[in-house]
Amino acid sequence: MLSVSNIGLRYGKRVLFDEVNLKFTKGNCYGVIGANGAGKSTFLKIISGEVDQTNGTVDMEPGNRMAVLKQDHFEYEEKQVLNTVIMGHKEMYDIMVEKDAIYMNPEATEAEGMRAADLENKYGEMGGWEAESNAAELLSNLGVKEDLHYKTMKELSGGEKVKVLLAQALFGNPDILLLDEPTNDLDARTITWLADFLAGFKNTVIVVSHDRYFLDMVSTHTVDIDYNRIKIYTGNYSFWYESSQLMAAQIANKNKKMEQKRKEMMEFIQRFSANASKSKQATSRKKALEKLNLEEIKPSTRKYPFINFKSEREPGDQILKVTGLSKKNDQGEVMFQDVSFTMNRNEKIALLGKNAGAVSMLLEVLAGDIEADSGTMEWGQTITHDFLPNENAPFFSGAQDLGLVDWLRQYSEEKDEQFIRGFLGRMLFSGEEVHKKSSVLSGGEKVRCMLSKIMLKHPNFLLLDEPTNHLDLESIQALNNAMKEFKGNMIFTSHDYELTNSVANRIIEISPSGMIDSLLTYNDYLKSESITAQREKLYTDANLVNS
Questions:
Q1: d(CA 324, CA 341)
Q2: Are residues 335 and 208 in the same domain?
Q3: Domain with 495 in it: what CATH number?
Q4: Does 276 or 341 have the greater pLDDT score?
Q5: In 3-state terms, what secondary structure has residue 162?
């Protein structure tokens, strides 16, 4: 068991959180949520000992081992990949290094030989004999191919390093596992494998993530950082979100009787319990929900931006016809070729591809920002489209001295300052924030500005390249709802599983050798054996194209 007692953290006069008393028990997974800057990652660093709290204590049961997902991707550059994974169990790795050094020393003394024998016994008791095979299995499950296992870390790509460090944290069955944004740079299949792994993990997991699907898959409890406090609630993120929203509505309507509130909450809990019965943590989660004290649930203080894509004109029958689009990069490498499809009304296409750069490039071609090497596009006469690029720096670099009101006024037919200020307020820029210079905006603030720009244009076709990048959970939730409710067409790409699965009604996957076009949902697409076979052939052929 892990407990924190009277934990507080202050930076000068600013109180991040105070009087935090929590217990984390074996067999549970705790998903940590909170607004940007609330202290989610800092809280994990306090638990791991990387950051000192202002007051209070962190207590771990004697003999327990804690593993932490490392954030420094260059820490092990000279280490072999397999050894980097095994280093996740420091004591086991140190024993391995010491005994191997003795064996390699031709002048080792008798005493050192006896020491090596003792170390060998201890190594075996820790499971050392299976260390290399276990590390290799973890790497393979995470998508790190066997031919990379004996290379040094510096020979790997950034995405491969992330997977190795994740394998390092998972290695050796730690008693307490701390994961800060573990799904970053992972593809959907690897995220699903990790979620399944953690769902069956028997010890304690504490995880910070902006991936709602992942949190829902793994979390038995939600750790909410709000009101300068940290509190544990039973249930996953979706349950916390729906409960918080329901409580906020009940508080807003003070004429509701308390008994009516209780009845509605109980009905909600019963529906959630029925859904939870399909999960791997079903029994314990359902029992915990039955004991839930409704009065403990508080509406969140966090605010959700108002995102609403409202078309000015309804699209006609002719939407978009794409024929034989192909494109190479500046190095002559084929990014995609022979991309052909025709869109129908109300279709929302999720665009996939192993090469994120190729997917972005296709969206740029569709948006008209760059030209394809070959092929044609035919937009319907009624279609007005707008594009949210993954890289938005050009929209701000030339306007660094503009405040937000003047920046957004550039894209609005209505130039009145009160109108612009009101629009910015709904996107969570209030008071003096509307005078912020575009040069000092955070990544999330820039994305909210770009979404505001699109909303003011009222397009009936959206092109969105990783729209959730840099956004907090609240903004992601608002964006997800807006994309679902949008009445026009869209083509988008996103690493957010829940957003893709709930919005897309068609999937197109591109590669240098061709494409797959499917009317399956995202979830069914990933699970389909026939699609998997097509994908394998697609990427095998792709390797031949650029070999």
A1: 9
A2: no
A3: 3.40.50.300
A4: 341
A5: helix
